Fold this protein.
Amino acid sequence: MSVRVRFAPSPTGQVHIGNIRAAIFNWLFARHNGGKFLLRIEDTDRERSTPEAVQTILGAMEWLGLSYDEAPLYQSTQHGQHLQAAELLLKNGHAYKEDKGGTGQGECIIFKMPGTDMGFHDEIKGDLLKKAEDMKDFVIVRSDGSPVFHLANVVDDITQGISHIIRGDDHVENTFRHVALYKALGAAVPRYAHLPMIVNAQGKPYSKRDGAAYVGQFREMGYCADALFNFLTLLGWSPGEDREKMTLDEIISAFTLDRVKSGPAQFDLRKLTHMNGLYLAELPVDVFAEGVRRHLAKVDWAQSLDEALFMKVCRLLQSRTPLYTQSETWKYLFVDPIEYDEKAFQKTLKKEGVMLAL
RNA sequence: GCCCCCAUCGUCUAUCGGUUAGGACAACAGGUUCUCAACCUGUUAAGAGGGGUUCGACUCCCCUUGGGGGUGCCA
């Protein structure tokens, strides 16, 4: 079975850390299995989708090295496909029209759940079952003619030939609907894997209120892509054998879904910072220096530093810098005069017999 | 309310019936040191509770408790 997975973000703003983690896991799964990693931009929400947000997504993926294998599919171009699928469901009796009243006006198209108990196998959580009475019919096309997420998502996954759907835990319940949709559409049901959520110290979904929550923010704060990638990989997954800091190749070859945990994982910025330090320490000096330069660009005392001294300082402090932004505290090395008591200094020199090689 | 999922040090995790329950981050102590930091060494620290199954349970089953998710003409 050839592996085809996808990352399907909505271009409505910044790229959330939880979303990019899902992208990373999909990417790793594809690379580990020699499959394809596809990108689908779910831009059907005309109100909130913007071209800038698409660029933000592309930029975040490029920064982290998440290369995709085929041209991105823009969901808005699939509108006809979605409606065609709805028509098919109507025709074969899996859907019906109804005016539900309430917020919308007119008839919407509703998918009829099979009315039998259902189940699917989750690669991470195991077998999941649901009784018929716990599943309700649901709207697939709104009364204004626009397809709902469930329909669009499933139809697009079918047209992109997705074999494994690896996504956040918050979609577990949707999966029963999606499986029913696949079957009603006469398509092969893909394999599913639901990733544990990334939560904050309170156990709630990690959000921007908990500090940095977007890829762009981590980049600005001075974290390097490899460190963030490695760290995110360890949230909910472990290669075993006490391995943590790994090269990309090592991660790819060790990555399997059966080693993904199913409980939520708390985001610990301190551990990320420590790991970032390990990555910065092994960078070539000039690359490190370049990163420092970027972060010092806006700092007033660092506007015209002596190049030779700057490189010297970089060489000296590289291994002790967990974050680029820490270079902002290097001011004393360049401009502050060293304060000392001349008399006490001389006295110490004599007393200790200290020899200074100056 | 109803449905589903989850549960090892403060945190991320290893363990897939038999271990002194291991590693990492953090914390603490000491060392090193031109402040800070980094670094080195060491210490503290965990199987939520109760029943089973078994010669033997962190590990398998059940209940309780706690946490999370879902329950839209949102995605």
About this structure: Chain A is about 40% helix and 15% strand. The mean pLDDT of chain A is 89.
